[in-house]
Sequence to fold (128 residues):
Amino acid sequence: QVQLVESGGGLVQTGGSLRLSCATSGRTFSNDYMGWFRQAPGKGREFVGAISRSGGVIYYAESVRGRFIISRDNAKNTVYLQMNSLKPEDTAVYYCAALISGQVSYAAITESRSYDYWGQGTQVTVSS
Fold:
């Protein structure tokens, strides 16, 4: 059974930092592209970023580039999202997801429907 479990969310003030983790099990983690998405109240699920299987290629949404950092530890089957300089508009439920397709395009990587497995999400609230 494939499981993705996010942790590390919480309440932080504007300008603060949080580090989210996503621990996976039930699959060979290093075979999967890993993505982070977020969903604010009343809005659709938004691409935050993604990291390739080896960690050598990383994509970020324009809204978080320069503030967020994605990394992965294949030995620990875990992907991370370091969030710095947080803003109130970063408030959302954050999800990690695994994409298992062998060939992926940039368009597919940024689309939530491309992903095969999802975590339950972790709430991040940034107060002004």
